[in-house]
Amino acid sequence: MRPIAISLIICAAVSVAVCAVFGIFPWLAPIFLGLALAVNLLIWLVLWTFSLFVDKKKVYEKPSNFYRRMLNFGYAYICEGARVKIKTSGTEKIPEKPFLLVSNHLSQLDNMIQCLVLKKRPLAYITKESLFKIPIVGRTIWRCCYMPIDRKSLRAGKSAVEAAEDYIRRGVLSVGVFPEGTRGDGIN
Question: Among 32, 79, 111, 114, which lies 20 to 30 A Cα-Cα from 71?
């Protein structure tokens, strides 16, 4: 589901919930919904405006802290809307230097949660090329040094791995990868 669709669903759910929980008159629901939509559209307009400053043809040497925070804000917004509660343990074992994060892919929230848990450290992913075509998201993840991979081309895979190795070796950022390439059940 696209982030904008998720936002609209969240707006509708919040306005209905506010009216139901607080026993507010039913005629106030459209007002709450309108306000929620207006705020939501304003947020998306700001994000879209900032995404226009990203040059998709340029290969960036290091991720932008501003765009990384913007991405983490979006991740937190989606996780909060999905009512995801993050509990961590063993974070003291995470190395201080950049590292390769290899993980299975159980849900669409995997990389979002990992980025939120590791938000104090730059983390980018080797990810499918189609994500870079999503408005706002594509430019933002490009500026955060995410590496596209064409799943049909071995050469593209090699160049993404080489870029990841370079980022880690130079101490620029940690790199996450889901070797399954798509969501799996984590068992097979």
Answer: 32
Buried b (16+ CB within 10 A) or exposed e, 127-149: bebeebeeebbbbbbbbbbbbbb
Cα–Cα distances in angstroms (integers) from residue 71 to residues 38, 93, 119, in the given order: 21, 25, 10
65-81 vs 110-117: helix crossing angle, rounded to 10:
120
- Return the C-alpha torsion angle 8, 13, 18, 19, nearest 10: 100
Print pLDDT tens along the chain (188 aa): 455 566 667 767 776 776 666 666 666 667 777 777 788 788 888 888 999 999 999 989 999 999 999 989 888 888 887 888 889 999 899 999 999 999 888 888 888 999 999 988 899 999 989 999 998 899 999 999 999 988 777 776 888 889 999 999 999 999 999 887 665 555 55
Measure the CA–CA gap between 24 and 31, rounded to whole angstroms.
Answer: 11
Cα separation, 46 vs 136, in Å, equals 10
